[in-house]
């Protein structure tokens, strides 16, 4: 099916080397090697996609993708260090130690990025890919900014879709009719928000307009792909901007339905404040090259849903420990129907939630056990993030800060009576001020 893209060959604009800012020294030497070798082999070859776009705005691309007229087999014949991947649509990976240069043969029709088989069904592309020309390859890409081709033939940039001007104007514009392109692949809606956040681009009004109405289509996207998109949205250093973009374009309820509903129902805005605070912290960690974890991220994103579910279970009279367990399970099952969070992340995510109810403990044995818990660090970081939504946690934070360094000292500093006689993690606490549960404090 046509993408509402004019069937005649799009006009080519060539931007010569002295009119753009891409310099060979900013391109991976391995990518350059592949480009030169392909050309020597008599094939058309370009640097393409995110790398060209990022270089034009002065960024440092993480990966360098190449598009070529050579078939995967022809690519393989040119490189000893090459392996072919993908079943329906084969891609060549040229491997240089830890760096992989992906080389794709020009494709003729749109793809959903999954590399899978494609046919049509209600506007969605599921049809087989076929090889094409560089012009075909340009128009099947998503945004004009992502469809620029850099060549080492004369170091020019080739532009078939007006992408160069759009990059100069810092605007993301879908190629073709936006609604058709979103129906083909709803994940493009997330990509629009994500790339706008990452690059600090605006989204062209015509590209932004259909998103709100089409947002529910996201539920048809492959859950594993949505998980990958979530990681890129929130763990790449622009999580706050991504989150605000998703809200602005009405995508949050489609991506994280229960969390979005819980934030909406939470009049004080405390739950949203916690999520944003956590994302700010995550962005700062990325900026400092510190590690970030999907388990912590999802504990944060789904925290509003967890709190809301927990409160409703407690309101029904379910005892706290039971309610916590059930809320954690319920939220995990419901919310992750759309987004496939692997178990190796969902288990620690739940642990982070469940440990939140134990920060009121002061009994030595329990304090020691908590400190030794493999998820203590993450849970304590999480508690500190929760301060953005409530000032109730200050005492606990002070206690555990000290306990981490010297548990006996921290316990000695605890006013007499506190923490004594507790017979279970979720037993009612002595001090009235502490007589609360995670659910009751809500954030
Ligand atoms: P980044 O790597 O910064 O996240 P990117 O644009 O490089 O952004 P990739 O997922 O690496 O994103 O995709 C590489 C290129 O493939 C894109 O620049 C675009 O040209 C094309 N592409 C990716 N996803 C789609 C899609 N869903 N529909 C059409 N083209 C796509
Ligand atoms: Mg990329």
From TrEMBL:
Its EC number(s): 2.7.7.19
Record-annotated Poly A polymerase head domain positions: 45-172
UniProt entry tagged with the keyword Nucleotidyltransferase: yes
Function: Adds poly(A) tail to the 3' end of many RNAs, which usually targets these RNAs for decay. Plays a significant role in the global control of gene expression, through influencing the rate of transcript degradation, and in the general RNA quality control.
EC category name: transferase
Pfam families registered for this protein in UniProt: PolyA_pol, PolyA_pol_arg_C, PolyA_pol_RNAbd
Keywords for the protein's UniProt record, in alphabetical order: ATP-binding, mRNA processing, Nucleotide-binding, Nucleotidyltransferase, RNA-binding, Transcription, Transferase
Region (Disordered): 412-443
Superkingdom, taxonomy of origin: Bacteria
Gene3D superfamilies per UniProt: Beta Polymerase, domain 2, cca-adding enzyme, domain 2
Reactions performed catalytically: RNA(n) + ATP = RNA(n)-3'-adenine ribonucleotide + diphosphate
Family to which the UniProt record says this protein belongs: Belongs to the tRNA nucleotidyltransferase/poly(A) polymerase family.
Segments forming domain Polymerase A arginine-rich C-terminal: 316-436
Catalytic center residues: 63, 65, 142
One MF annotation (Gene Ontology) recorded for this entry: poly(A) RNA polymerase activity
Name recorded for this polypeptide: Poly(A) polymerase I
tRNA nucleotidyltransferase/poly(A) polymerase RNA and SrmB- binding domain sequence ranges: 200-262
InterPro entries: NT_sf, PolA_pol_head_dom, PolA_pol_I, PolyA_pol_arg_C_dom, PolyA_RNA-bd, tRNA_ntf/polyA_polymerase_I
């Amino acid at each position: 099916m046509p993408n509402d893209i004019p069937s005649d060959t799009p006009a080519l604009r060539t931007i010569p080397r002295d009119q753009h800012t891409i310099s060979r020294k900013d391109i991976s030497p391995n990518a350059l090697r592949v480009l030169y070798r392909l050309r020597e082999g008599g094939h058309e070859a370009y640097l393409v996609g995110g790398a060209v776009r990022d270089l034009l705005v002065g960024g440092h691309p993480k990966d360098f993708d190449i598009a070529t007229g050579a078939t995967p087999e022809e690519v393989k014949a040119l490189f000893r260090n090459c392996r072919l991947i993908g079943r329906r649509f084969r891609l060549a990976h040229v491997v240089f130690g830890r760096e992989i240069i992906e080389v794709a043969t020009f494709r003729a029709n749109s793809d959903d990025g999954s590399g899978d088989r494609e046919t049509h069904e209600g506007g969605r592309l599921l049809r087989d890919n076929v090889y094409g020309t560089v012009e075909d390859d340009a128009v099947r890409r998503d945004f004009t900014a992502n469809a620029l081709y850099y060549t080492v033939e004369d170091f020019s940039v080739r532009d078939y879709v007006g992408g160069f001007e759009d990059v100069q104007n810092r605007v993301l514009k879908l190629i073709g009719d936006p609604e058709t392109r979103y129906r083909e692949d709803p994940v493009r809606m997330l990509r629009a928000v994500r790339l706008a956040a990452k690059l600090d681009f605006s989204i062209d009004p015509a590209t932004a307009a259909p998103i709100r109405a089409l947002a529910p289509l996201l539920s048809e996207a492959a859950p594993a792909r949505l998980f990958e998109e979530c990681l890129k949205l929130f763990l790449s250093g622009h999580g706050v901007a991504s989150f605000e973009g998703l809200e602005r374009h009405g995508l949050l309820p489609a991506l994280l339905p229960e969390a979005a509903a819980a934030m909406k129902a939470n009049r004080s805005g405390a739950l949203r404040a916690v999520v944003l605070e956590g994302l700010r912290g995550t962005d700062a960690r990325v900026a400092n090259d510190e590690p970030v974890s999907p388990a912590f991220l999802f504990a944060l994103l789904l925290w509003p849903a967890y709190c809301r579910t927990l409160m409703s279970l407690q309101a029904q009279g379910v005892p706290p420990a039971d309610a916590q367990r059930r809320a954690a399970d319920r939220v995990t099952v419901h919310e992750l129907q759309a987004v496939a969070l692997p178990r190796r992340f969902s288990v620690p995510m739940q642990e982070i939630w469940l440990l939140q109810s134990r920060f009121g403990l002061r009994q030595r044995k329990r304090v020691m056990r908590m400190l030794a818990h493999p998820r203590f660090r993450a849970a304590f970081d999480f508690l500190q993030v929760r301060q953005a939504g409530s000032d109730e946690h200050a005492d606990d934070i002070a206690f555990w800060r000290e306990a981490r360094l010297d548990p006996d000292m921290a316990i000695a500093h605890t006013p007499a009576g506190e923490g004594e006689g507790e017979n279970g993690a979720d037993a009612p606490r002595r001090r009235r001020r502490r007589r609360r549960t995670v659910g009751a404090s809500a954030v």
